[in-house]
Amino acid sequence: MSAEVTGEAADRDVGQTFRDALGRDPGGVFSAPGRVNLIGEHTDHNEGHVLPFAIDRRCRVAAVARDDDTVTVRSAQQPDDVVTTTLDALPRARGWSAYALGTVWALREAGLPGAGWDLVVDGDVPLGAGLSSSAALESAVALAVAELSGSTLDRPSLARAGRCAENDVVGAPVGIMDQAASLLCREGAALLLDCRTLEAHDVALGLEEAGLVMLVVDTRVRHDLADGGYADRRAASLAAAEALGVPALRDATPEMLDRLDGTLLRRARHVVTEQARVHRVVDLLRGGRPAEIGPELTASHASLRDDFEVSVPALDAVVETALEHGALGARLVGGGFGGSTLVLTPAAAADDIAGAVTRRAAVDGHPEPVVREVHPSGGARRER
Fold it and tell me: Which one in 262, 328, 343, 380 has a CA-CA gap of 20 to 30 Å to 371?
């Protein structure tokens, strides 16, 4: 299987990069993972249930507090790209640094004392692949700033800060799933998360015991959740809930859908049926039957393609080809409009699927995909 990112970031010492750039030691080094959402796509911003798991790709942050109101952030991958601002200017941050700077601002809004920071970030979560590189950055920064400030904020509060940064500073109207997964997931398990209450429960995946693996196929068709497509789907979901007279589409039932038509019907039908799929998958996993969740994943893709209309030909081709070559189930993951697909497969079929989706992309004229095997990982942590 080819890999666009080989782990170089994991081999780099972000603490040493910090020392080289700033001439002093960081107060600590923290990391947070990207995530894949097993099932429950576009249910998070409808206050529903999701089932993500963290992956073994992480963002790392070396941080130290300053004694003034200046905040600096730099990337270990581009050490000359340094953004310097002040605490008062944090809400106006733009570009890649807005994810980190917006999180610092959101934590101040949540009650952390004002202080400047020096931050150096690095990571190997692929950008734009639907694996939540932005939430990994936000979560690593949130944990770093909170712990080094001596804060008692719990992890759900840190997740809310990351979401606030994404919504109010970056301008992406995302739900809280990504940040919660990055902060709360346990190794070997998915996280059943109620996006209204943030009540969370671990659900063991049992993949290795069943001889199964998860592949993430990055189509390299890039997407941006701050653009109009995602916002349009969220607006339609809100309009459908209002038309049905419910607080959010998580509260809608299949019987209610007869009151809608056209676009609002399709958007609402996806959310209602996806909610049901989440709970069926949880029941199968808790029953020790992970191989049987495949059809639910594939049904999710069909709903995202036909009702929520967030798929693209490159994603559809991966799903179709993976199923033809032995996958048990497959679906797009992330917001859609590009990014990646998740493929559940017997381990013995993984290489055949990787080759087949690569050949199909060449025939269809799509970018060459990158296929990665991912493993359920633990959430954000202090490295040292």
Answer: 380
